[in-house]
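Continuing the series of single-chain predictions for the mutant panel. This is the parent chain; the variants come on the following pages.
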Amino acid sequence: MLSYNVLEFGEQVSSVNSNRLELERAIDFDRENDVLVVARLDRLARSVSDLCQIVTRLEAKQAR
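Parent structure:
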């Protein structure tokens, strides 16, 4: 039987703003085998290179 804990992180700031505290909290919280679910990919990153940096940070933590 699988068990899931769900935590929600949400922001109301523009992705243009580099000071994204909730995104930082979510990435810092992620552990090995955790899954980060994003409702809208266009709200996650400012650019493809920004998205790659976020994914690299998650991969380093072995999160998905």
